[in-house]
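I had to read the description of the data format several times before I understood it. Each protein is reduced to its one-letter sequence and a matching series of backbone shape codes. The format is easy to grasp once an entry is in front of the reader. For illustration, here is how one protein appears when written out as sequence plus structure tokens:
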Amino acid sequence: MAISDDILQDLRALARQNGVSLTKTANRVLRTGLAHLGDRARPNRSYSEPVVDLGPATVDLDRALRIAAELEDRQVLRKLEEHK
């Protein structure tokens, strides 16, 4: 088993803060997390989104990616101009 570096760093900081060993800190955190794990259990419910007719397309959908890229380029240029 491997613990992610960021989690290990947080555990070490918490251990130092509380003046206890890393092992005791990790066990306490795991016990607390496991105890509360069942608190958030929700029954599986299906989700559905209403379907709405948006009408005919107002742009050529074959060019949608090109249009999106152009709009993004304009936004970047506008932000660059604001920061001059």
Residues 12 and 22 are 6 Å apart (CA to CA). The two ends are 51 Å apart (CA to CA).
